[in-house]
Design brief:
Length: 552
Amino acid sequence: MKLRLLNFLPVFLTVAMAGAAQFKFGNQTFTVPKGFTVERVAGPPLVNRPIEASFDEQGRLYVTDSSGSNARIPEQIKNPTHRVVRLEDTNGDGKFDKSVVFADKMMFPEGVLWHDGALYVSGVPIIWKLEDTTGDGRADKRTKWFDGKTANGCANDLHGPYLGLDGWIYWCKGAFERQRHQRPRGQIINDRASHIYRMRPDGTEFDSIMAGGMDNPVGMAFSDTGEVFFTTTFFNHPRSGNRDALVHAVYGGLYPKNWSILDKLTRTGDLMPPLSHLGSAAPCGLTAYESEVFGKDFKGNLFTAQFNMHKVQRHVLSKSGATFTARDLDFLVSDNPDFHPTDVLEDADGSLLVVDTGGWYKLCCPTSQIAKPEVLGAIYRIRRTDAKLVKDPRGLKLDWEKISAKQIAKLLDDSRPYVRHRAMNHLGKMGEKARAEMMDLLLESKSVTARRNAVWALIRIDVPISEMTAGFGLLDSDPTVQQAAAHAAGIHRDAATVPQLLNLLKSKSLHVRREAATALGCIGDKSAVPALLAAAQSGNGRVLEHSLIYAL
C-alpha cells in the first residue's frame, strides 16, 4: 500500500531551519519554520488511525480510519474491518469536535475523494462510490466504480483516487499484478507495470498516462496548468542514498526502476527522470499549495508526507525545459519514531492538515516489524501566525443553486481556491447554460487565472472541444491558458483542433510544445507527422523529446 516502506532502519535527520519554532504534544516535539504554528485538531476517539482525508463542500472531513489490522490481504478482503469517519468542526475554531461513521466494514481504505455528492474510496481491488441518499450521515449506497481485480499480498495495487482539473478521476496502480484494460483509441494495456490511470466520473474512456517499474506510486497532485505529480517508493534500486522519489508524470512516459517488467512497454529513449530523489522516505500523501496565505512564494509549491522520515517536506518548483526542478526543504519534522504522516492537504483557509496514522502498520514494511496498534494517530494543522483571516473560505454564503452562470463565472479568479474549484465544477454541470459566459471570459477577461479556469470548466461540458477552445484558449496570449486548452483538445481527441496545435509546436514555451505534442498524439491525425518530425530535429531536452516521439 502507500505505506509500503523500506529495507533500511528508520533515519532521523537533524533539522536545519533558521529560527525554527517547536511545539510539544505528549512525547513528541514538532519543528516548523519560524512564523508557523502547529495544533492538534483531531484524534481518538473521533478518529483512531487516520490514513487519508478529503473535504466536502461544507467543510466536513472524510477520513479513512484503520482498525489496526495487519491480517493477510485475502483475510482482510473476506472480513473487512476498517472504516471511514466524517469529522465536523461545529463551532468554527478549526478543531474537529464531532464524528460519525460514514462507512464501516471497509477493505483497507488507502485513498478517499469527495466529488460531486459522493465519496470515492479505494479498498483493494475496488474503488467504491459511496453515497448517503437519506442524509443521516451514513453511506447507504455502495457502487463498484472501478474493479482492478488484482490484490497483491501487500495491498499496494491501488491508491487514490484524485480529481484532476479536467474533471477526470485519476488513481495509481502499484504492485506487479497483471491488469488488462482498453484505452480510448482501442489500444490494449496488458502488463504488470505500475501506472497512473484515469477515467471520466461516469466510468468511461479508461486511459493510462504513465507506466513504470517502481513498486508503489501513491500520492498525486495537480498544478494549475494540469501538470501531474506523484510520489513513489523504489523509483530506483537502492544505491547512493537514492530510492524513493517525487515525479513529474509526462503523458506516455516510461519510468524506472529499470527491470524486466518494462521490457515489452513502449520506450522513446532513456527512462524518464524523477523530479526529486527522496531517499528511503516512503513518501505518501502529496498536495499542491494553491493559495497565498502562507506567502506568495508558497503558491504552487508541493508538500509531501514522508512516512519513514517522520516529516512533511516542501518542494519549491522552477520550470526547466519542458519539466521542472525542485528545491526540497523540511517543513514539519517530528522527533517521535511513531509519528508516521500519510497525508497532507490544504484546507480552505490556507492552513495545512497533516494526517498521522500512528504506529499500527507493519504489512510488507521492513522497518516496522513490530506493529504498535496501541499507538494511535492524529490530525494536525499548520498555520502561518501572521496570516490574514480568509472570509467565507468555502463560499458557503453564496446560494450556488440560484446565482446565475455569469455570477459564478466571475468566481473563476476568486482568491479562495475552494471557491474557484467549486465554480469550475458548477459551471461544468450547468453545461450549455454556462457555455456562453465562459466563452466571453476567454475572449474578454484580462485575468489569466479566469481564462485558464474557464478552459477547465469548459472541458467538463460534453460538447466538441473545438467549439469551445480552438479559436480561444489555443490562441490565447498566455502560454498557461494555451497549455490548458491543449490538454482539453487532447483528452477529448478533437481532430478539429489539429491546425492550432501544430502552430503551438513552435511556441516559446517548451511546456506548451510538450502539451501540444501530447494532444496531437492522442488525436492520432497523421497530417501532424511532418510537423512533429520537424519539431523533433532540434535539441529539446529529454522530456520534450519523449513527448514528440511518443506522439509520432
